[in-house]
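Our preliminary data section would be incomplete without showing what the modeling component actually yields. Below, a chain of 371 amino acids is followed by its predicted structure, encoded as tokens that our downstream tools consume directly.
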Amino acid sequence: MKKYFYKYYKEFICLFIILTLSLLNIKKGYLLKKEYINFFNKQLIWIILSILIYLLLTKIKFKKILKFKYLLYFINIFLLIYVILFSKSINRTKAWINIFGFSFQPSELTKITYPLVSINLIKHKKYLLSSILFLIPFILILLEPDTGNAILLLSIFIFLIINNKNKNIFKILFMIIGLLFSISIVLFKYKTNLFINLFNGKLYYRFKRIANYKNNYQINNALIGIGNAKALPIKFNKIIIYIPEGLTDFIFAFNICNFGIIISSILLIIYGLFIYFIINRYNKTNNYFHKKLTGCFLVVFIIQLFYNILMNIGLMPIMGIPLPFFSYGGSNIISFTILYSLINKKISSNEDMGNNNYKNNYHKVQMDKYS
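Predicted structure:
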């Protein structure tokens, strides 16, 4: 563990500051709702569990993880089917599994399982199989419906295709996605009954809420809170206005109300530094699998960060996209912790399945020690 800390200590410091400020916000959740009073203890348990998972993964060789990548993928698919069929609906969405009072969102795991099974398939130009493995969880997530995680999974898929520099394949996929999206918009606006019959009423409601986001109660209250916030947290234990989902989707607005504009600006700087450190690693990585996996982490992290902040200030529609390592919820923290631990591991030449010439690289492989 020491070698990981010394190598990535700057990133760990950034994450420590982000998690600490997150906990301080969640501790004040009772100001929004009395039901939030136990959220601090739950979030602390999720963070401790994430740290234990990280420590465990540092002891497992990446080669062993890759052996079970398809098993992990299909377990993820099973969980997605399970929540659609058997889980309780929360805010018209069936996306969570409840375990001993703790809720977990299987769609978050697709950020991990899909890249693991797809990176080398795309390298070897097995686009059809990679597309099928993408479409299965993508459709299941839309059926929940969980638009936010569906968009994030689509972003990973597009990133992997673009990074492969196959312009023709990407153009075809882009045209198909654009055509399907255009048809969906036309049906949503002019053929409501047909849209509901083809998809479902829940998805129609989700589209309708996205389309009318500017008149949303949550965004209006968040903007009022931000507009009346002070530069520094002069008055503690008070909130300017009630912010719905103030510990999850709108925790950035809640943070501004709690700790002021200056500390919130420092938080953004910390996020920027963390991204800068990961980008440096991405640029220096030569291993094919490692580079793509790091890129997937960056894509998801950056999209979630910017979308959540833009959503909080009323520039984007409301979707269930939490602020990374900051919003309340174990699914968000655990999924990012697992993916972060994987990009921190050194992947040797024979673990990069894109290298088939094992014999010619035998001596090189021997020099690569598994982390």
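Confidence is low (pLDDT under 50) at residues 354-371. The chain is about 65% helix and 0% strand. Preliminary results of this kind motivate Aim 1 of the renewal.
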